[in-house]
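Researcher: Good morning. I'm working through a list of sequences from a screen, and I'd like to move beyond sequence-only analysis. For each chain I'm collecting a predicted structure so we can compare shapes side by side. This is the next one on the list. No need for commentary yet; just the structure.
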Amino acid sequence: MRRFLPDTFLILLLCTVALASVAPATETFAGWFAIATNLAVALLFFLHGARLSRDVVVAGLMHWRLHLVILLTTFGLFPLLGLALGYLPASILPKPLYLGILFLCVLPSTVQSSIAFTSIAGGNVPAAICSASASNIIGMFLTPLLVGLLFSIGGHSGFSWDAVSQILLQLLLPFALGQLLEPRIGNWIRSRKTLLMPVDRGSILMVVYLAFSTAVAEGLWHMFSLRDIAVVVVADMLLLGLVLLLTTYGSRLLGFDRADQITITFCGSKKSLASGVPMANVIFAGQGVGAIVLPLMLFHQIQLMVCAMIAQKYAKAAHRPAVLQAEPTASVA
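Model: Good morning. Structure tokens for this chain:
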């Protein structure tokens, strides 16, 4: 039953949203908190850059077909499915929540969970590390561009070219500095994963609190009902289910081996909360960011629960042939 329970981070996210609902950041405190949040996010991406080994990048880049499939899924298939959901009437899926779903569709893949599930399932871990990291780097350029393109198709606004420069300054520059210093500090940072975990989660919680503080002040919880949120959950599940099916069977049709199929399935189906929330804060500055990130927060938990079950099934399937081969030997003995 544990796989169906929310993880600790989701509970912290819900508590953060609750705190922002009853005690939102306002006026002077909000300004100082925004500065602290930007610094925390910059530190997060600096650590991501410093953790990523050069050897892993070089080894992973050799598998270009796999990376191409994952990138096309992340930045091609997902946005097309998101546009298809736009045909739902606003009476079923309110416009602000639909924009949130469309935004999550153009986000890069996760890093930590993609690698973790690939490892559990017996996939190509070096390729997963390289692909997930490349997705986040490319997403810093591509996500704001796709937001501008897809939102303009639907007649929506919310993008400016200034957002690209701000994202590069806040996310890419710290990441690049981390990569430059990786030969000196990479081993030290990788050996202290538990110690540095609060930076990962704390920076996201800070951005969520700031985003929902603004949204609550704009009347977020008076705009949507429980039915609206339930529709978002169903839409998130539909998106994830379709992408999992297409990546699982599509990778087989393309002739990838089992390890690469697993990598494509897990890296191609993820959407990054760590990158998505800071990007939303920049791209949609001055707008209802809370409604934009709400579908992403729900998708985050759904993908963790579903992919945990799939990873365990892959692991059991890999273990089964070894057991079957061992049984005849045991009976002869």
